[in-house]
């Protein structure tokens, strides 16, 4: 099952790796015998589904979450392995789509006339306060 992140890209299932382990939390004795925790691994650096620009953007934005170019997403909220697999796929899709959102370009703006006037008045007030603290000069 391929992971589709509309309208950006589709990751082939051959690039996704799965690991399963025992999940902590509620479930009674059943939890000690089933591997319901799902880990989803995807190698961002070697993925053929990404363009070079997308790869650089994801590597830069997801940098702290990557280990050797591989992102790992875990899901252990549910008692069912199948449901945890679906949750892990959804988490990865959300991470990738958030990582590929283009950055807003900030247009620099000038301070308003009123804010410049208030800034100047505050400086004059501070200056007057400091001048009042000085010793009178002995002229």
Automatic annotation (TrEMBL):
Residues 100-139 are annotated as: Disordered. One of its GO terms (molecular function) is peptidyl-tRNA hydrolase activity. Keywords: Hydrolase. GO terms for biological process: rescue of stalled ribosome. It comes from the Bacteria. InterPro entries: Pep_chain_release_fac_I, Pep_chain_release_fac_I_sf. Belongs to the prokaryotic/mitochondrial release factor family. This is Aminoacyl-tRNA hydrolase. It comes from Paenarthrobacter aurescens.
């Amino acid at each position: 099952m391929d992971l589709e992140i509309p309208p950006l890209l589709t990751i082939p299932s051959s690039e996704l790796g799965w690991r399963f382990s025992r999940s902590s939390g509620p479930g009674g004795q059943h939890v000690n015998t089933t591997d319901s925790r799902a880990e989803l691994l995807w190698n961002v650096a070697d993925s053929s589904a990404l363009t070079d620009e997308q790869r650089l953007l994801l590597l830069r934005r997801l940098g702290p979450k990557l280990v050797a170019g591989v992102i790992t997403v875990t899901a252990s909220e549910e008692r069912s392995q199948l449901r945890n697999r679906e949750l892990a796929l959804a988490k990865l899709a959300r991470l990738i789509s958030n990582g590929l959102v283009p950055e807003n370009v900030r247009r620099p703006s000038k301070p308003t006339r009123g804010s410049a006037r208030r800034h100047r008045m505050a400086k004059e007030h501070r200056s007057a306060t400091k001048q009042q603290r000085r010793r009178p000069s002995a002229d």
